Amino acid sequence: MKSNMQPKGMRTNKKMNFGCLKRVLKMLFSYYPVLLPIAIFCIMFSAVIATMPAIFNQQVIAAIEEWYISRDWTAAKQEIIPKIIILASLYVISLLAVIAHTQLMAFITQGFLGKMRKALFNGMQNLPIKYFDTHKHGDIMSHYTNDIDTLRQLISQSLPSLLQAGIIVTAVFAIMLWYSIWMTLIVIFGVAVITLVTKKVGGGSGKFFIRQQKAMGKSEGFIQEIMNGQKVVKVFCHEKESQSDFDKINNQLYLDSSRAHAYANCLGPINMNIGNILYVIVATLGGLFLLSDFKNVSLSGMAFSLSIVIPFLNMTKQFTGNMNQVSQQINSIVMGIAGAERIFELMDSQVESDDGYVTLVNASFDDEGNLIETDKRTGVWAWKHPHSDGTTTLTQLKGDVRLFDVDFGYTEDKIVLQNIDVYAKPGQMVAFVGATGAGKTTITNLINRFYDIADGKIRYDGININKIKKSDLRRSLGIVLQETNLFTGTVMENIRYGRLEATDEECIEAAKLAGADDFISRLPQGYETQLSNNGANLSQGQRQLIAIARAAVADPPVMILDEATSSIDTRTEAIVQKGMQRLMQGRTVFVIAHRLSTVKNSDVIMVLEKGKIIERGNHKELIEQKGKYYQLYTGAFELE
Fold first, then answer.
1. Residues 500, 363: Cα–Cα separation, whole Å
2. Is 440 found in the same domain as 333?
3. Both 145 and 278 in a single domain?
4. 34 belongs to a structural domain
5. Is residue 632 within 8 Å of 596, Cβ to Cβ?
6. Which of 5, 189, 257, 488 to pair with 62, CA 20 to 30 A apart?
7. What pLDDT does residue 73 have?
8. How many Cβ atoms are within 10 Å of 17's Cβ, its own excluded?
9. Which residues, 6 or more positions from 76, have their beta carbon under 8 angstroms from its beta carbon?
10. Contact (CB, 8 A) for 85 and 135
11. Are 514 and 621 in a shared domain?
């Protein structure tokens, strides 16, 4: 339960990965090639309109100055009123553009996030089992919640604000140069200070925002782990230790978050006050230029006048305000990039490789006894093997599974299984017994290719399983695991999970076969009883019976029973054993059991120790050998 307070990569000064931002934008344009450009145009249009008042103010003030000299109000009125009407009209159009781009960006953002979640989930389905064995599930969940939410802020708020502010700054800068280069240089000096502060403070916040995302993922991973193990925590009175471990992780998240937001929150006020000081400087120098008849230098060739100085003050405020707006978006952009990086890390994880080309098909026999492919479910299966010359052959699936000199290790430097030879003939029941960690479950994980072997061969009906497509291989294998997983839905839906096209009658028949029909019929709504939270309203034995029924409805030619009756009491076990015997008829069955009474009738029993098969034979033969199996059987019926 002790926690490592230093997540991998947590203390590195990792810079922002702008490649992730580029990838996000590329995906946005590919998903919305029409709507996104329209939204961008609306943002740009409203931004340009926002700079128009400076031009109109200059012209109106110039008209007033001329009226003050000439006292001809009629001429001034003819100059001013049309400009006011035009400006008001532009504001109305700008309002419509703002409404359009906000609605479009809301639609685009939610649509994009929906596609990202779909891509994440679809990609996750193709990841190997090893990925989930080596990553905390809570941290994976954080990709769908926190990281996706940072993308929402990035797309819907930060990027539009950044684009709008950037256009306003550019347009205002051009207008400033048009009116007065000297005054523009003063503003540029202030902006240089703002940029320096933004780089210094914003860089600090960026580093800690990246750490914050990692710490948040670790925190959620720990919480999910403790929730799953809550019974264990309470049984061993480990509440205080769990709280202490969480406090350390939570404190790290607090430190990184507080530092990130401390930088980000002080950035706005600092830049705002720099802008206020700059406003005062521009006003003072503008007044001095007017009083001293200072020669103006501008692209327009205009002389200094009130019609330039007054709009310049508003433009200074607008310029620095939008520069401040840009700096304020830094934290959201950094968080969005950090979230995107984590999302793409999951999306880009190496998927489960599958070079198989042999597929599983329904088959039947024609009048001459030849095996032919059919679209209907006949109960006969065949391996469809395409050849390089364009022909295909069908091999009936009989359930002949053989392992030859198989070596395997979860890591290259630590071999778990050595020289494993297993010969399971069609219809045989093969049992694996041995102490925990001997390699029993690992063998079955190799048969269904959850992991690939390091050396040796595994053949299924004479075909190397590397040539069989994984989905077809696993479709031919029914598995009942020691840890039962039930999904939110009805009992009927959970049984039908084994074969989605199964009818209600077939599901009920499978439940009867597994011995589950009796207790299901006594549930409040029978087969329509709603299950949730992994079937928390059922006993462990009842959950296991549903899992066995799920395997039965799949009707596979080969069954793997990994401690299938370990969670069932002795009375229930007797009921299940009868159903299991019917279920196993005509099938090749691999049984993993600690309870030796469940494997007495196996055709072959293999005793494993430290990754090697040390004994093999049936129950009678192994008892007569008086070896390890004999000791286990006579000493205790439960392996420790």
1. 20
2. no
3. yes
4. yes
5. yes
6. 189
7. 65
8. 15
9. 63, 64, 66, 67
10. no
11. yes
Structure tokens at 391: 């022909």
Specify whether 342 is located in the same domain as 432. no
Q: What is the rounded distance in angstroms from the CA atom of residue 104 to the CA atom of residue 35?
A: 7
Which residue has 């109305």 as its token pair? 92
Using pLDDT thresholds of 50, 70 and 90, give the confidence band for residue 16.
low
Domain that holds residue 265: 18-346
The pLDDT value recorded for residue 572 is 66
CATH number, domain containing residue 529 = 3.40.50.300
Nearest to 586 by CA among 558, 628, 552, 547: 558
- The sign of the dihedral angle between the CA atoms of 490, 492, 497, 502 is negative
Average of per-residue pLDDT across 262-270: 71
Rounded to an integer, the average pLDDT of 29-38 is 94
Domain end (from 304, 329, 346): 346
Q: How many domains does the chain have?
A: 2
d(CA 637, CA 640): 10
Clarify whether residues 188 and 85 are in a common domain: yes
pLDDT at 565: 66
Residue 256 one-letter amino acid: D
Alpha carbon distances (Å) from 532 to 68, 353, 491, 529: 81, 33, 10, 10
Domain boundary among 289, 315, 346: 346
| Secondary structure of residue 499 in the 3-state scheme | coil
CA dihedral sign of residues 438, 441, 443, 449: negative
Q: What is the pLDDT of residue 299?
A: 83
Q: Provide the percentage of residues in the chain whose pLDDT is more than 70.
A: 88
| pLDDT, tens digit, 9 for 90 and up, residues 167-184 | 988 888 888 888 888 888
| The pairing of beta strand 455-460 with beta strand 401-408 | antiparallel
Mean pLDDT in residue range 221-233 = 71
Q: Is residue 624 exposed (0-12), middle (13-18) or buried (19+ Cβ within 10 Å)? A: exposed
Residues ≥6 apart with Cβ < 8 Å to 50: 94, 164, 168, 318
- Cα distances (angstroms) measured from residue 283 to each of 40, 54, 291, 478: 35, 16, 12, 82
Q: Examine the pLDDT at 104 and tell me if it is beyond 90.
A: yes
Residue carrying the six token digits 């019609």: 307
Task: Give yes or no: residues 312 and 433 share one domain.
Answer: no
In a domain, 506, yes or no: yes
Q: Is 523 helix (H, G, I), strand (E, B) or coil?
A: coil
**pLDDT digit string (tens) for 565-617?**
666 666 766 766 666 677 777 789 898 877 777 788 889 999 998 889 999 99
One-letter identity of residue 622: L
Q: Tell me, yes or no, whether 439 and 563 share the same domain.
A: yes
- Which is nearest to 447 in space by CA: 436, 430, 438? 430
CATH number of the domain where residue 332 is located: 1.20.1560.10
Distance from C-alpha of 393 to C-alpha of 459, rounded to nearest angstrom: 17
Per-residue HEC secondary structure of 337-360 comes to HHHHHHHHHHHCCCCCCCCCCEEE
pLDDT at 457: 94
pLDDT digits (tens, 9 = 90+) for 400-440: 999 999 999 888 778 889 999 999 998 889 999 888 788 88
Could you give the 3-state DSSP secondary structure of residue 490? strand
Residue 2: band (very low, low, confident or very high) from pLDDT cuts 50, 70, 90: very low
Cβ atoms 340, 456 nearer than 8 A = no
- Type of residue numbered 94: S
Write down the pLDDT at residue 241: 79
Establish if 97 belongs to a structural domain: yes
479 and 612 both lie in a single domain: yes
Which stretch, 265-269, 287-291, 348-352, 614-618, has highest mean pLDDT? Answer: 614-618
Q: Is 416 part of a structural domain of the chain?
A: no
Task: Estimate the crossing angle of helix 73-125 against helix 330-347, to 10 degrees.
Answer: 30
